[in-house]
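Example record

Each entry pairs one chain with its bound ligand, benzoyl coenzyme A.
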Amino acid sequence: MDLLKLQESFDAKIEKGDCIEPKDWMPDDYRKTLIRQISQHAHSEIVGMLPEGNWITRAPSLRRKMVLLAKVQDEGGHGLYLYSAAETMGISRDEMIEQLHSGKAKYSSIFNYPTLTWADIGAIGWLVDGAAIMNQVMLQRTSYGPYARAMVRICKEESFHQRQGYEIMSVLAAGTHEQKAMAQDALNRWWWPSLMMFGPPDADSPHTAQSVRWKIKRETNDELRNKFVDRTVPQAEFIGLKVPDKDLKWNEAKQGYDWGKINWDEFYNVIKGNGPCNKERLEARRKAHENGAWVREAAAAYAAKQQQKAAA
Ligand code: BYC
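Structure tokens for the complex follow.
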């Protein structure tokens, strides 16, 4: 088929809402956009294990420790599904890891902030996983088949993560004065970075318009951010915490909240590598990769041996 026909058939599938599958022809830029987004998503899951992993040894009870362990392990699993989905587009796992370690590929800005207290684990589950779900629910209908299918399973697990975080915050908010103050402090520190997770405003987002045309994104950064605010503010009120935004106000006409300005300088600074924990996070990932080299070598040697046996 000539290029024009291939493009027409691709456009028709997108228009109809059919999934594009790995063996289908696709424009180079569609492939590049997806490799960029899926690999960044995978890196976010893996780097996201670090701030939470920091509290596994200090969880306040055995129950909390088991739940946190399970959650962090889920994030590792999400990273693996997503790396596999990206590999179907013709990039190798090694290349993706190299791009993360060299700083060429991004991961979510949110994971460059420190987890200072136990309440931060609650705030991450409630706000960070809450924001992630808001974004990921639409990705279950993204136009690339393997990505959409990975997201279905991920979303199920993320909704458990969000609930465990909200439960931690509810218990702290109903606790002693110090516990409530700790929960409020965590909300104060995580609120604005959580809103930044959705990416720059639509007007400044270089990729959104094309990604929406390709149905990679089904909703824009601003649409999702607004939905998140509308859903989360009543949850904060319900447990007696205050969202740290003096401009936050219900707008009856639009049936949604008006809210204050995001510090976009802070966001761009963090994604350029200058957030509070960027260096620490990358260093930890590089070290983990080096320390795991013997496992990869052993697995490859075992696979080679099995192949030899099968061929004999
Ligand atoms: N952080 O044109 P835009 C989780 C970059 S983790 C860093 O709007 P796009 C979890 C963007 O990459 C969930 N960079 O881009 C794990 C682009 O730079 P490049 C993570 C950001 O791609 C553990 C530039 O800014 N979720 O669930 O159309 C524990 C312009 O942006 C960010 C995903 O990754 C950011 N926040 O839209 C707990 C979801 N925002 O690439 C929880 C999948 C923007 O041109 N990703 N940038 O150098 C997406 O949906 C989209 O990629 C984004 C950005 C909405 C993030």
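Residues 49 and 113 are 13 Å apart (CA to CA).
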